[in-house]
Design brief:
By secondary structure, the protein is α+β, with helices and mostly antiparallel strands. It has 10 helices and 6 strands; from the N terminus they run ββββββαααααααααα. The relative contact order is 0.07.
Length: 285
């Protein structure tokens, strides 16, 4: 595609327009140097193109690109690419702005010999464990590329940005999902006197299921009904007590979200909980 300059933001960033005449941000090393509106951009010099129907995004990018060093945007793009590859999820373009701003702040903080307390706790890191692992790698990348020491605590903030980008929800939703998952896990653990077992595959699967379960509730999505009474008797053998646990979870979702969980949702929760209990019962024998 041929890009024509609409406005030069700096030596490495310009505003152009796509085929639908929407404003886009085009970045590349030196693509804005000596350019004027109407001039063409060599496609081989283009590093990234940001397409957004949101004028607010374009305005925010145009403002930040002159406040934050270009190297921070480069680093943010590298972290975004890493996250998309390792999480196998598309990240919104907002992640680049959020990360560039955060990286700029972290670098300035280090050079000013300043420190701050991190707000996110280990529960958030546990519930978003895959994102947290990517964030830890991002911290190492920042250390190597900027030659600074970055606290591992910064990985929590990067995790926060990654979660917001992949869910497309607000930061409040990300925290609400994490808190709700932890509340439901507490109900399950109290019901069967279970301990945390982060290494247990079935425990991790339950956490992943609960994240999507809560997200569906927030998005007002429901599953088709299935009568689980036709599939098993939850009061026999390993399923003893699960019915009461599911009732407690149902009470929680109704009080917290005004949402009545479907029989299908109960069934999938039952399966994940039963897998954990099977492991527990085998170890107790």
């Amino acid at each position: 595609m041929v890009y024509r300059v609409s406005k030069v933001l700096n030596n490495n960033t310009v505003i152009s327009r796509d085929e639908d005449n929407n404003e886009i941000i085009v970045t590349g090393n030196g693509i804005g140097y000596g350019k004027h509106p109407g001039m063409m951009i060599d496609e081989k010099d283009v590093r990234n193109v940001y397409v957004s129907k949101s004028k607010a995004f374009i305005r925010r990018f145009a403002k930040m690109v002159n406040e934050i060093p270009d190297i921070c945007f480069l680093e943010a793009e590298k972290i975004r690419d890493l996250a998309q590859k390792e999480l196998n999820k598309e990240m919104s373009d907002n992640i680049v702005l959020a990360l560039a701003d955060h990286i700029s702040f972290v670098v300035a903080q280090y050079r000013n010999d300043d420190t701050r307390a991190m707000l996110l706790n280990t529960e958030f890191q546990k519930i978003y464990s895959q994102e947290y692992e990517v964030a830890l790698k991002a911290v190492k990348m920042i250390e190597e590329d900027f030659g600074i020491h970055v606290s591992e605590g910064e990985a929590s903030a990067i995790t926060f940005h990654l979660v917001n980008s992949e869910t497309g929800n607000s930061s409040n939703d990300a925290v609400l999902i994490a808190n709700s998952v932890e509340d439901i896990l507490k109900i399950v653990k109290e019901s069967f006197r279970l301990e945390d077992d982060d290494e247990l595959v079935d425990y991790s699967r339950l956490i992943i299921h609960l994240k999507f379960f809560v997200k569906r509730i927030l998005m007002n999505e429901t599953d088709d009904e299935t009568d689980i009474s036709l599939l098993l008797n939850p009061n026999e053998g390993i399923y003893e007590g699960i019915s009461e646990c599911l009732n407690r979870i149902a009470d929680y979702t109704e009080k917290t979200f005004d949402h009545k969980i479907s029989e299908t949702e109960r069934f999938y929760l039952l399966i994940h909980i039963a897998r954990i209990l099977q492991k527990k019962f085998k170890e107790d024998k």
